[in-house]
Amino acid sequence: MELEALKSKFNETLGSTKLQISERTLDGLLQDALAEIGDDDSRATEDFFTRKVELAKTIAGQINHDVSARIKDWEKQNPKPKPAEKPTEEDETPQWFVQYRNKMEAKVAELEQARKDDLMKSQRKDVLSQVKESFKAKLETAGITANAFVLKQTLRDIDIPEQDADVKALVKDLEKAYYANLKEAGFETEIPRRGNGGGFKPKNVADDYWAKKKAKEGWGGKD
Question: How far is CA 56 from CA 18, 81, 111, in A?
Answer without folding.
Answer: 11, 37, 13
